[in-house]
Write a structure and sequence with these properties.
Length: about 425
């Protein structure tokens, strides 16, 4: 998962970091760098050329292909995982000949790559991108820039965020030298205007052919962003080569989950091997699930109620183990699927079910809980159930007469207290 600074700018006002992580994750689909570059290239964005490979032999063949097509004699071997900071973890290496291409490919393929964004467990590398060397000598020094595009929900329009400090941790740049962060908001009724693209190119200090190339690059990039319904473009770095070409050396593209029905070819880019197995299983069951690092599993209907539920868990002294929204049409099947997914997490010490009966009836949920409990069998962790809304009394009665080890709660503070007692 990519947690870029551009997203953090938008979410910085949210106090509960767990909630902000959910918002970041839930509305996007990650893709690999090589896939992102293929998309950008199809819209006329100049990119660092590369060929994806899954074996050392394929990597060697890719290097030879690149040499024939671009003339490059050096090659960059890049691990393809859904996380940033790959270079810091040893996932990006420079090969100066074909022998090194094979050697470095063997080192990176199959490695458990640990970066600041993967956590200590890291991610296994199944693919690499063999890319051309674009830092060649020429008439001027290469220069790196930062560009991203995202939706600014507060202003109701897209914003381009740029910086002259490309290739660096943009978080550090924003913290230490905020004056080097440039923002340009795009009026949705007219789109990106020429003066705005020129303004960014001027801010980068470009002139001559490099200036024209940057303006062209920005228009192509923005067209790609809008056309594929992306939720984030982050190009870091954007490179001005020594012969004044502008190209994307790296590319992070996040796609809006809600728009994928319009882009089947993009939906097919999903790499399940890069996702948490429980999240994949939940998706197959039609559940909205995000695994977290806590000890209290929660099952809720509605994102807003889920956020409040996670606050309750934290106030009780616990930590949320997941976000799980069963939706408005919760039934025995969805509740059972939710139970099975939550119980697969060995860190879960208690489960809190918090349902507000608006569209869904509480008695229907209660029946689902009872059926799921009986089907799964011996559930060893405490289960706290809070039902409010339509047919809440009937639901409470069903749970009370079930004979199962389920602790009822009525108010939010009651639920928090029950969780606290269960964790004691």
């Amino acid at each position: 998962m990519f947690y870029s600074y551009t997203i953090y700018l938008f979410l910085g006002i949210i106090q509960n970091r767990i909630i902000s992580l959910f918002i970041i994750y839930h509305f996007k689909m990650n893709i690999h760098e090589y896939q992102a570059k293929d998309i950008l290239k199809s819209y006329g964005v100049r990119v660092q050329e590369g060929v994806v490979a899954t074996t050392p032999q394929a990597a060697l063949d890719a290097a030879r292909q690149l040499n024939a097509e671009t003339g490059t004699k050096w090659f960059v071997i890049k691990a393809q995982i859904h996380a940033g900071g790959r270079g810091k973890g040893g996932g990006i290496k420079l090969a100066k000949n074909y022998e090194q291409v094979t050697e470095l490919s063997k080192q990176i393929l199959g490695m458990q790559l640990v970066t600041p964004q993967t956590g200590p467990e890291g991610k296994k590398v199944h693919k690499i991108l063999v890319a051309e060397d674009v830092y060649y000598p020429g008439e001027s020094e290469p220069k790196e820039y930062y560009l991203s595009i995202m939706l600014d929900r507060a202003k109701g329009c897209n914003v381009i965020i740029a910086s002259t400090e490309g290739g660096m941790d943009i978080e550090a740049v924003a913290h230490d030298t905020p004056e080097k962060i440039i923002k340009e908001w795009i009026d949705p009724s007219v789109g990106l205007q020429p003066f705005q693209a020129r303004k960014i190119a001027f801010a980068f200090g470009l002139e001559g052919n490099a200036f024209k190339e940057m303006v062209k690059f920005l228009f192509a990039l923005y067209k790609a962003y809008e056309s594929i319904d992306a939720s984030l473009f982050e190009i870091n770095p954007v490179l001005k080569t020594s012969d004044n070409k502008i190209l994307a050396v790296d590319a992070k593209v996040n796609l809006d989950d809600n728009s994928l029905f319009r882009h089947k070819e993009l939906a097919d880019m999903r790499d399940l091997a890069e996702e948490d197995p429980l999240e994949v299983e939940a998706s197959a069951s039609g559940l909205n699930y995000v695994k977290l690092d806590g000890n209290v599993g929660c099952m809720v209907n509605g994102a807003g109620l889920a956020m409040a539920t996670m606050d309750i868990i934290k106030l009780s002294g616990g930590e949320p183990a997941n976000f799980l929204d069963v939706g408005g049409g919760a039934n025995a099947q969805t509740v059972e699927a939710g139970f099975r997914i939550i119980l697969q997490d060995p860190n879960v010490k208690a489960i809190l079910i918090n349902i507000f009966g608006g569209i869904v009836r509480c008695d229907r949920v209660a029946n689902g809980v009872v059926e799921a409990y009986k089907k799964i069998g011996d559930i060893k962790v405490p289960i706290i159930v809070r039902l409010q809304g339509t047919n809440a009394e009937e639901g409470a009665k069903i749970l009370g007469e079930s004979g199962l080890k389920i602790t009822p709660a009525i108010l939010l503070k009651d639920a928090a207290q029950r969780v606290k007692e269960a964790m004691a």
